[in-house]
Write a structure and sequence with these properties.
66% helix, globular, mainly alpha
Length: 235
Amino acid sequence: MVPSPSPTTPHSHRSATPPRWQRRPESRPEEILDAAQRAFGEFGYARTKLEDVARLAGVCKGTLYLYFESKEFLFRAMVRAKVVTALAEAEAFARSYPGPAEELLRHLVTRMYQRLRQEPMVRITRLVQAELGNFPELAQFYFEEVILRARRLIEQILRRGTDTGEFRTLAHGFAARGLASLMVHTAQVQCLFHHLDPDALSDEQALEGLIDLYLNGVLARPMGPLAVPAAPPRP
């Protein structure tokens, strides 16, 4: 009679529960996207290699190719996961916000600025400004899915405020463009040059000044100093 395999045979050991440190396959795309954001931010688009991303993600290059077929495909996926998703959340917030347009705009600027102020996002916006002009298809992609989408969201809020008499009628569309530029530039200065500025502002002061300057540019009536708004009510 051939004895049955004991619980300690190699076959039995292989079928045991995987080690606790072993990552689940479904977590790998997110880890790769996190690594891609870091790699593109540190090295720039042109200098980033898929080997860099795989190393930062702790996977082999072959595993990365299971999810992302090229560097361009990975960059687009990273932007959609890290930037476009946040824009979609802001759009949903704006649609469901019950209060005045002025109040909505303050809350929205706060949300967007706090996201842009995070160092990984500062590095990505710097990459976009410095490099994407050399990659026309990626520039078109970023313009349509991020810049234009953000502009349209701000335009909708400005129109809402104009209709209610909160905002003055503006001659052209610069106001929406200007807000996006102001937020990106302020976030970059705070992140990259704060330690060099002898009269540096805190992040709270920078955000308060940004909101004050912008709202006083679009409001239909003068107003006093602004404070950063408290946490908005949940929709």
